[in-house]
Amino acid sequence: MKQYILLFFSLSIFFFSCKTNSAKENTEPSNADVLKKASREVRNGWIYVHLEGTPSEVGYQHGYLLANDIDTSIQTVCYTLAHQTGKDWAFFRRAAASFLWNKLDSEYKAEINGIVAGLHDQHKNYDSLDITAYNAMEELAYYYVPMLAEKQKKGTGLNKAPGNCSAFIATGHFTKDGKIVIAHNNWSDYIIGQHWNVIADIVPTNGHHVLMDCMPGFIHSGDDFTINDSGILITETTITQFVGFDSTGIPEFMRARKAAQYANSIDDVVNIFLKGNNGGYANDWLIGDTKTNEVAKLELGLINHRVWRSKDTAIIGSNFASDPKLIKEETTFSVSDRSSSPNARKLRMEKLVAEDSKGILDIETGKKIESDHFDAVRKKIVGNRCVICGHVDEDPLGSSQWSEGPYYPMGAVQCKITNADLAAKMQFWAHMGHPCGEDFIGAPFYKAHPEYKWQSKYLNNMLSYPWTLFEGRK
Question: Taking the model in full, what pTM does it have?
Answer without folding.
Answer: 0.92
